[in-house]
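Much of what follows relies on a compact textual record of a protein's fold. Each token is a code from a learned vocabulary of local backbone shapes. The record below shows the convention in full.
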Amino acid sequence: MKIRLPLLFSVLLALLSPAALLAADKARNCGCDCCKGKEVCCCHADEAATAAAPAPGFHALTGVVTNVLAERQALMVKHDEIPGVMKAMTMMFLVEPEVLATVKKGDAIKAHMGRDENNKWILRHVQVVPPAK
């Protein structure tokens, strides 16, 4: 198979054009006020969290919020079994402050569970999902 160099060059040039690079950057961060300074646009955070695999030492978790403990910056979550890690149970997880503003008692969630630098259980990439049927 013979590839024409001018054709290949024009395709590469189109892919690397400023407009293409700007469009790719916009996919990461749209530039709206709520997204300034963030790597991934919060307008697309759900998509990014869904696509992202848990970091090393973290595990995918699904469950239901049984209580929001704002004074402890934590959630009580009745979670499903995490195969090879722990049985299904209800336990407290530390969360980022912005999670407390978006999650309420009774919400079904999915997240990444792991331990922080102080060996406390934390949730990252918390996402409210439709309840399991």
